[in-house]
Structures are given as C-alpha cells and as structure tokens.
Amino acid sequence: TTCKRCHGNGSIRAYNSAEPLNSLSLEDMQLAIRDYTNGTKDNGMAILMTPYANTITKKDVEGIYNYLQTLK
After folding, report:
1. Tens-place pLDDT, residues 24-37
2. Which end of the chain is more exposed for a tag (fewer CB within 10 A), N or C?
3. Burial (CB count <10 Å: 0-12, 13-18, 19+), residue 68
C-alpha cells in the first residue's frame, strides 16, 4: 500500500525519476533500498524514499518483488 502511492502497480516511473519497479531485478531493488538507507543514492527523491527504506527489510523487498512478478 505504501509503495503504491508513488509507484502505482509497479509499472510507472514514480515522480518521473525512478525506474518502474516491475523493470527491476530483485538485486536492483535490494541495492536501491540499501543505497537509500546508507545515503549513497539520491536521484532527487531520496528525501521521500529514505524514510521508507529505513523501515523496509530484505524480506519485505523480496515480497514486493515476488508480488510484482504476479502482475506481469
């Protein structure tokens, strides 16, 4: 639900800056969350994404990735 606010069903570019989530590999998603968490990723949206990244677990990312695969 939280992701959907900006990323929709995973097929849109959130704020025209992020790649659609359904185009990312699991590794890409995990690396992005890690980089937001440690402050090394800022595509202009870090101010919005970092608070979410700080609360999401690796298992959560896997669940989001697996859910998006069911929508393809």
Report:
1. 999 999 999 999 99
2. N
3. buried
